[in-house]
Design brief:
CATH class: Mainly Beta
Bound molecules: calcium ion
CATH architecture: Sandwich
Shape: globular
Strand content: 35-45%
Helix content: 10-25%
Number of domains: 1
Strand order of the largest sheet: 1-4-9-6-7
CATH superfamily: Galactose-binding domain-like
Radius of gyration: 21 Å
Structural class: alpha+beta
Number of helices: 2
Largest sheet: 5 strands, antiparallel
CATH topology: Jelly Rolls
Order of helices and strands: HEEEEEEEEEEH
Length: 190
């Protein structure tokens, strides 16, 4: 193997190593599995309906999850402090178990200093019935935020959420920088 080929090979190995480092995404949610109890989540309902609970006998992971029950006038809210930055891209995921066909609602949104910022998802529970299904959203934040909220209700039945996850998706800007850096390195070594 000549020296030039060896350099190219080494550059490839370096690029692969950097690529792996880039895909190891840090989890931004604390205790997303609820196996550590409810903290640091806050679970509340500001309306007249109070059918919701932290459960310790039904989970996708382990035994704990949060149940969103029936409510006619208000959504149950489940939230915790998460730093979200405008312009960053995120991958949100959680597992949902939906009981029965109901007039259900599921919202994922952000707040900052107690004020609503934006919705990342709003609609019915899109996963199947009577089984755990993964619910995911990929979004780019338009506004900074300090809280991630999951809100919902099920008019005549109930659904459970578990294993909540939020990670930053490396943007095209960092990928371009990596590519340019790799090329510059190759040229220097020739
Ligand atoms: Ca769990």
């Amino acid at each position: 193997m000549n020296r030039g080929m060896k350099n190219v090979l080494m550059a490839g190995v370096a690029a692969i190593a950097l690529g792996f480092a880039g895909t190891a995404r840090a989890e931004l949610i604390t205790n997303g599995s609820f196996e550590g109890g409810l903290s640091p989540w806050t679970l509340q309902n500001l309306g007249v309906d109070y059918d919701y609970e932290f459960v310790t006998n039904f989970g996708f992971s382990g035994t704990n999850s949060v149940r969103f029950g029936h409510g006619a006038t208000a959504n149950t809210s489940l939230f915790q402090n998460v730093a979200i930055s405008a312009g960053e891209s995120y991958h949100f995921s959680m597992w949902v178990y939906n009981n029965g066909v109901g007039d259900d609602e599921l919202i994922v949104r952000s707040f900052k200093n107690g004020s609503w910022q934006e919705d990342y998802a709003m609609g019915i529970v899109p996963t199947g019935l009577e089984s755990w299904g993964e619910f995911t959203i990929d979004f780019t934040a338009n506004f900074d935020a300090d809280e991630l909220w999951i809100q919902g209700r099920d008019q005549i039945a109930t659904y459970y959420v578990d294993d909540v996850s939020l990670t930053v998706v490396p943007g095209p800007a960092s990928a371009t920088l990596l590519g340019v850096g790799g090329l510059a390195w190759l040229r220097r070594r020739r």
